[in-house]
Amino acid sequence: MPSPVAEIPAAEPDLAAAHYAAKLAFETDCSDVHAAFAGAKVDFVLLDVRTPALFAQSHVPGAINLPHGKITAHRMSEWAKDTLFVVYCAGPHCNGADKAAFRLAKLGLTAKLMIGGITGWADEGFAFESEAIAAE
């Protein structure tokens, strides 16, 4: 009798590779975002989609505050169509980043979710900023 882990067989390697490649097309993590900023290779725009008040209290360094409800075609027109956006919110208990990524996709823009959000950033021990750098 197999363990609960092995009771359902693991996917074949080619199926697993396809699955994880697809998943990584939608997500990035706090560590990769931090490494991009630390290495000066920032080829994306980091959007904090929480409220301006929460952003002012604490946010990921380099992020721009743009609440998901304010993601409109007019607002996003200041960036090139091929810009990659990375979005985050409070953490796994919040779907604000999902809403933001959805809005961006509906506008024909590419986006990845920074899994973990602020909670994940804190769990990694990375520093925060607290001054307001809001997108108006």
TrEMBL record:
Transferase among keywords: yes
SMART domains, alphabetized: RHOD
Keyword set, alphabetical order: Transferase
Protein biosynthesis found in the keyword field: no
Alphabetized SUPFAM superfamilies for the sequence: Rhodanese/Cell cycle control phosphatase (SSF52821)
Gene3D superfamilies per record: Rhodanese-like domain (3.40.250.10)
PANTHER family in alphabetical order: FAD-DEPENDENT OXIDOREDUCTASE, PYRIDINE NUCLEOTIDE-DISULPHIDE OXIDOREDUCTASE
Protein name: Sulfurtransferase
Species whose genome carries this gene: Rhizobium chutanense
